[in-house]
Design brief:
This protein has 2 domains: 132 residues, no CATH class; 123 residues, no CATH class. It has 12 helices and no strands. The N and C termini lie far apart (50 Å).
Length: 257
């Protein structure tokens, strides 16, 4: 059963956390520090949903807790490694466009917008927090989706990190490992993770929770994922045009000849 008041507590927690991160970003002059906190927003939301729900703890809640912590902590630790790197070029471009008002505007255009997006994406977590049903077939499928997604994200990130550490990687394109079959294995992994949570929610009868993975899919494909990353990448990496012609953009597929 949908409980708007519990969902609203999740929004309040997300806004509070990202507002604190915004304060740090202003002092650091680096808006991209929001990235490692993005997965932690979902962890916070999950525990808020559980604390404000009157549903007794069960096996479903333990399963979601384990899966969510595995995903969010791995991704957060991976992104925290960039803490001392220069600001991501996407945010630097926004800073240049908005000028002296960027610090104030970024609270709304970056931090609170992402809190709102996370609030909607977290619908499967809300559904599972409010459910007391036993595990079933869709839960097994959801876990399978999650495992595939987790591995694609973790392995893809590790392969990219090793590639960037090479002295000859500047201006080059990674086209081996998982990157041979999809140009964005980490985004595909994120897609699978959230559809995994969606299937877990669907087992409880919460069809409305699929709005979360659906929004995440739109973000990954059309907004902040594939579309944004590939806007000007061919200017920085001349080999990328050939890579595009032979490699699937998102879903893994054998490379074209």
């Amino acid at each position: 059963m949908f409980d708007f008041s519990v969902w609203l507590y999740g929004l309040a927690a997300s806004v509070a956390l990202l507002t604190l991160v915004w304060v740090v970003s202003v002092k650091k002059r680096d808006a991209s520090i929001i990235d490692p906190f993005w997965p932690l927003v979902f962890t916070l939301s999950w525990f808020v949903y559980r604390m404000t729900s009157d549903v007794p703890h069960g096996t479903r809640h333990s399963l979601v807790t384990v899966l969510l912590l595995a995903w969010s902590l791995r991704l957060a630790l991976h992104l925290f490694k960039r803490w001392n790197e220069p600001e991501d070029r996407r945010y630097t471009a926004m800073r240049e466009r908005q000028g002296t008002h960027f610090a104030r505007k970024s609270l709304f255009t970056i931090y609170w917008v992402q809190a709102l997006l996370a609030w909607v994406v977290s619908l499967p977590l809300l559904a599972n927090a409010l459910a007391s049903s036993n595990l079933g077939a869709l839960d097994a499928a959801g876990v399978a989706f999650f495992v595939v997604g987790f591995l694609f994200e973790a392995i893809g990130d590790a392969q990219l990190t090793r590639f960037k550490a090479r002295s000859d990687s500047q201006g080059r394109v990674l086209d081996t490992g998982l990157w041979r079959y999809t140009r964005h294995p980490n985004y595909f992994g994120e897609f699978c993770v959230w559809w995994g949570f969606g299937l877990l929610a669907l087992e409880t009868g919460a069809w409305w929770a699929l709005g979360g993975p659906l929004l995440m899919t739109i973000l990954l494909l059309e907004v902040s994922g594939v579309a944004l990353l590939e806007q000007d990448i061919e200017e920085r990496r001349p080999e990328y045009a050939q890579y595009v012609r032979r490699t699937s953009a998102f879903f893994p597929w054998p490379p074209r000849a």
